[in-house]
Amino acid sequence: MLMNAPAILNEILQALKDLYQKGEEHIIYINKIPLTEEDRLAILDVLGEGQVKIRLESKTQPAEWRETGVYGVWIGVFFDRDNKPILETIEITTFPHMASSQREDIEESIRLLEERLKVLLQRDA
């Protein structure tokens, strides 16, 4: 029996409109909503399968995002150290933020690349 699938799909539709018209992104924490197995299957069936899959290989909190067949809608799953799902999301965005490079990582990469470039130039001199 469908309980919450229609409401979630309507929320996704409105969020897609907001993303398109206002640039606003939205996250639905689906493991915090009571969903029947029929709800889950209906949501996945309506959204369909996309072509992009992103996997974050982290020892502390691996994660995976799958693009759905509806552009701008991503399903994310965060895992614990034992690879058990601990958080499931539906993100309405152009690209999942947690999969993006974080500001502090970019800062570290600048230092790393500067050092590597310095070593290369010293080696070539």
TrEMBL record:
Q: Which domain of life is it from?
A: Bacteria
The cross-references to InterPro entries, in alphabetical order and at most eight, read: HupH_C_sf, HupH_Hydgase_express_prot_C
Provide the HupH hydrogenase expression protein C-terminal domain boundaries: 2-119
Protein family membership:
Belongs to the HupH/HyaF family.
> Can you say what this protein is called?
HupH hydrogenase expression protein C-terminal domain-containing protein
